Amino acid sequence: MSRYRSRSETGKEAKPLRLTFQPAQQRAFFSRATEQLYGGAAGGGKSHFMRASFIAWADMIPGLQLALFRRTYGDLMANHMDGPNSFPEMLAPKIATGEVKITKNEILFVPTGSVIKLLHCHLERHRLNYQGQEFHVLGIDEATHFTETIYRFLRGRVRMTGLNVPDHLKEMFPRIVLSANPGGVGHLWVKRTFITPQKPYEIVQQDPEGDEGGFKRQFVPALLKDNKALMKSDPKYRARLLGLGDPILVRAMLEGDWNIVAGSMFGDVWRHEEHTCDPFEIPVEWKMWRGGDDGFSPAHAAVLWFAEDPHTGTIYVVDELYKTGMRPEVFAERTLARDRRIKRMFPDGTVEDNKDKLAGIIDPSAFGDTGQQSDITRGSALNKLGCAWKPAEKWPGSRVAGCLHVQRMLGPNEKDINPRTGKPRPRLRFFRNCLNAIETIPALPRDPNNPEDVDTDAEDHLYDALRYGLQWKTYGGFRKAKVKGL
């Protein structure tokens, strides 16, 4: 356990202010990483680490501008301004002497002139409130509550000009510190950015000319067992985590396991080994079609290709297209090229590229009036180029109906028995080359305001393509049954 003792700008010891760091927190605090995720299990001391680090840096570096974000103002106040370990309590000795002044949204360190700004960014459009601002240190508490769009925008505000940083600290700033637990709308981008590409504690320099900001990136795991102070003061905390009920949620919160997603819509039914399979040539007698969700930028355009086994009714997702920034000409060209590249097998064993013209169902917004100065919609433009899209049907309750149907399709198919295990395979399976679909669909969190639907703030474009693609085969009587009584 390490303690940082603040000093006044004269070098004399100020009023007692001791900031306690557990070993993992100390390692993160002294790290030379400049884009750092400190996170994992619940109770790992993430919020305390951020407060203590911000106080220490503001006390050491004159003129430092620090921004600490939570998604909502209420969460910001509850987690950082109220309670026995809050900013006001940690800074009480300096507040008493006038060395620190706290207003509603700022903490001013009078001797150094440094400021900790307490900020929030609830909706994606709110990120524009910070256009033109400069942060020397950016902190995002519970980063998985934020979308990637918000994070990338705020990261672009991190820079340092004209600030006199002590020589032994210069390589540590400007700096970004994030905390997070697995789960939430930002689970995937946080995992892709910090967890998957590198080992824990490893510092990886990002390309200064690339689109990742040129920071030195690091993931520092935060585990409950590392937080000795919490375990001592609240020894029953672990038992309360075990009492959460949902085993997926317990594992994510207790172990900080990023390979599972707490609160995901399909986490209780998804089994990677059962719902994915190696690609194979599609028999020529099987029906094939597409499902799509249109998008340009920053939203992705997403297309999934489907094939149905006529003997068992099992539906396979055999290919995917997932990309931003495609004009209709490019979108159509890539879609039709993938139509052709699917391998079809004839009864005599001959394998050829697909020659059948495929059609599909796409988000109806592709055919809607976007308000742009154009006499043709994107959907119509795609169809003029040969894509044969039809708009998906929508009605009151259609999103929930579609979600329930995906749940059902992920369930067992009694007509499709695995000869190795003797158990039924799922009704819906994905070729393992559909990497983005396999990553994003099982990770989708529930809508916090409607647990029967996915959270649309999450990365749901391929899920929507899946919903629409399944509509091609199944929405006939399904819609009527669901709409009855609305």
What can you tell me about this protein's structure?
With 486 residues, the chain is an alpha/beta fold. The protein folds into two domains: 2-255, Rossmann fold (3-Layer(aba) Sandwich); 272-483, 2-Layer Sandwich (Nucleotidyltransferase, domain 5), CATH 3.30.420.280. It is 30% helix and 25% strand. Strands 5-6-7-4-8-9-3-11-10 form a nine-stranded mixed β-sheet, with helices on both faces. A seven-stranded mixed β-sheet has the order 12-23-16-15-14-19-20. Helix 12 (328-341) crosses helix 13 and helix 14 (398-409) packs across helix 16 (461-483). The chain is elongated, with a radius of gyration of 26 Å. The termini are far apart.
Question: What would the keywords be for this entry?
Answer:
alpha/beta, 25% strand, 25 strands, 16 helices, elongated, Nucleotidyltransferase, domain 5, single chain, disordered C terminus, 486 residues, Rossmann fold
CATH third-tier fold name of the largest domain? Rossmann fold
- Counting DSSP E segments of at least 2 residues, the number of strands comes to 25
Residues in helices, as a percent range = 25-40%
Query: What's the CATH class of the largest domain, please?
Result: Alpha Beta
pLDDT averaged residue by residue:
87
Layout of SSEs?
Elements: E1 2-7, E2 13-21, H1 23-29, E3 35-40, H2 46-60, E4 65-70, H3 73-80, H4 87-90, H5 92-97, E5 100-102, E6 106-109, E7 114-120, E8 137-140, H6 148-155, E9 175-180, H7 187-195, E10 204-205, E11 216-222, H8 228-233, H9 237-242, H10 247-255, H11 272-275, E12 276-277, E13 282-283, E14 287-293, E15 301-308, E16 315-323, H12 328-341, E17 343-345, E18 351-353, E19 360-362, H13 378-384, E20 389-391, H14 398-409, E21 412-417, E22 424-426, E23 428-431, H15 435-440, E24 446-447, E25 450-454, H16 461-483
Parallel strand pairs: 3-9, 3-11, 4-7, 4-8, 8-9, 12-23, 13-17, 14-19, 16-23, 19-20
Antiparallel strand pairs: 1-2, 5-6, 6-7, 10-11, 14-15, 15-16, 17-18, 21-22, 24-25
Helix pairs in contact: 12-13, 14-16
